[in-house]
User: Fold these one by one.
Assistant:
Number 1:
Amino acid sequence: MTESNSTSIGQHCLIIGAGHAGTQFAFGLRREGWLGRITLLSEEPCLPYHRPPLSKDYLKGATSAESLLLKSPESYQQADILFLKDSKVVRIDPSKKEIRLADDSLSYDHLVIATGGRNRPLPVKGAELEGIHDLRFLSDADQIQSTYQNSRKAVIIGGGYVGLEIAASLSMSGIDVSLIERETRVMARVASQELSTFFFELHTDHDVQILTGTEVTEILGDTHVKGVRVDQGQVIDCDMVVYGIGAEPCIELALDANIKCDNGIIVDENLQTNISGIHAIGDCTAFVDNRQVTRLRLESVQNANDQARHLAKAMCGKASPYAAVPWFWSDQYNVKLQIAGLTGTSESTVRRTGETDQSFSIWHFRGDEFIAVEAINDPKSYMIGLKLLEIRKSPSPDEIADPSFDLRALIRRP
Ligand code: FAD
């Protein structure tokens, strides 16, 4: 037993939110040797599950709810983690080191906030009609599935990852799909122009009609949705709508407890908030990445898991500043997109041909510095790009553009 672990005896670590971050943290903390109590609270009515498949295989009916579980039902007891479902925290009282549920209160020694994000509501007339959905929880995916089984025509509002993945899943399930995007290209906020064009064409090839530079002004119908009116006045008939127009962090509990927030709960390099003994991890946090100048809030499983692992180590006396390289993926039809790094500050790009007709990668540079790679059906380029970012090595644009150049040599180069 290490000295730091022995100090956890008799301590109670309480975690609010059992998504990827909260659940990974609970198990990580035990694995790192925490000897005190661990309680994991979820407002949801079920065991913690993987969220990404909700818009992909699960929506298509290609996988079961059981296969989505993050941990087996028995593993909570085995790791001595008290998991409480249907337990929405309504207040944090830092002065008493206590949280309140609807009809109970629990005290803590250490509190970890992992409340994730919520979908932005659709701000148009008619948004409350039947047949209109958004997707975040397992129960949302179940509802969309039961709606589309009786639908012919769907309109998807929002051309980010989630909207495009839903469009692909519904289209592959035989539904006629139109997608409406306000920006001039799909994935405008998160991907390069070249990738946007690739995904636009991919969806069009699968008979999904995409309208970019178009805004929804009203949803039509009496009780059930019948159509969507867009800003050019045109009406697109449909019998269901799914919207995915971005997410915002769940920070109300933190704000109410005087924890500093700015588009997320502000945490330092050890994921500590401004209140001692209260940490935050996952989609709800705003942190300073040591490669970026500005504060970041990421919505990704990588960030949730890496922050969780990092904090578990730190609380067991193995602290080091958080410095993980962000990575992300998306599956649409038979295409796998993998991104390592962040493209937001990209100044120039180089395209590299992949090993098959269907694969390529886009490498991003800020000045001479390599900052991100977007890989289409090209796991090798993605893996090498990720490694280069981790060891902070920049290939030259000429090396990237030359398909005969062995990228692995870059990793070995002193
Ligand atoms: P969440 O997973 O959002 O979990 C937070 C949990 O806290 C929720 O269960 C919430 O109900 C609970 N909670 C909130 N407030 C309270 C409260 N007051 N009391 C108790 N519980 C509370 N990321 C990828 O990297 N790749 C993908 O392909 C991908 N696909 C996605 C597809 C969909 C449809 C969605 C919605 C997201 C996808 N993401 C993907 C994003 C990814 O799921 C999130 O980044 C990840 O789930 C973040 O984990 P988290 O634990 O921080 O938050």
Number 2:
Amino acid sequence: MADETTTDRNGDVMILARNNRGRLVACVWNQDMVNGLPSLPMREGDVVICSYAKSGCHWTWETARLLMSHHEAVVQQTEKEQCMIEMSTLEKLEALKSPRLLNNHGFFDEQPLSEMIAKGVKVIFVYRNLKSVATSFYHHHTRFQEYNYSATFDNYLSRFLDGLVDNDSAFSYLRGWEKGIAETPDLKVHVLSYEEMKKHPMEELRRLSKFLGGSEDEEFLKKVFEETDFDTMQKKKAKTTLYFDSNGLPVMYRKGTIGDWKNHFTVAQSELMDSAIQKELGDSKMFKFQYE
Ligand code: A3P
């Protein structure tokens, strides 16, 4: 997977790469893992978090880790980033003790589906409203040097809408997952919304813990809630996260709110996004985007 300089309709460039299905991915990902994802060996007890970039994967990973730690042989004390399939190697994943809590940004049709079904793997699928995703991704792209990218937010938005980012088009990604989940009833999938987790944390924690076969004890869930609250996580993970920007700030823990997109979008940009979402995902039954 050679680095690819992508030029958008405004002439801005971003360094990415392309997988063997022709989809754009990050140039720092391990190409063997990206292209080998569909045939990745799975284990009984594995849990895999799947999400489009910037949809709350770190948060969900830490939440699931704590929920699983309570009821199973303790999930290995490690970081989400070390359990990301695209950044790992077969040997490193093999070395993780069960139950493994993995994560990836692959499209539905790139998942190791037959292995997942055969081994009873549990999949947690997280999504977030796309105005927040675009906002968060803009900061991600401008803060990580490997993209060699700088542009205004306005220019960025057309790049995002055109799917010229690692993780490719958010619309295709989400459509593919909705269709895949609907057509694959044997796959164990739990769908989570970032905004629902923010607004109704205890309810969502209870649902998730039930899916994972864990405790629904109120006190325990409250502790998990406190441990995974944004401020707590931002402080705690500043010591352990692998990714910092050139100012030494942890890129993966930025604002952690529902409404920060309003500080970036003009009314016209918001309407542009609304009409793109309507056109691309207007008939979705699964995605209920919440903006505040
Ligand atoms: P923002 O950039 O909007 O703050 P991912 O983990 O999928 O890359 O998503 C990153 C986004 O999730 C970032 O969004 C990050 O700040 C936010 N996030 C990380 N931890 C969180 C938490 N504990 N609660 C809420 N949001 C969190």
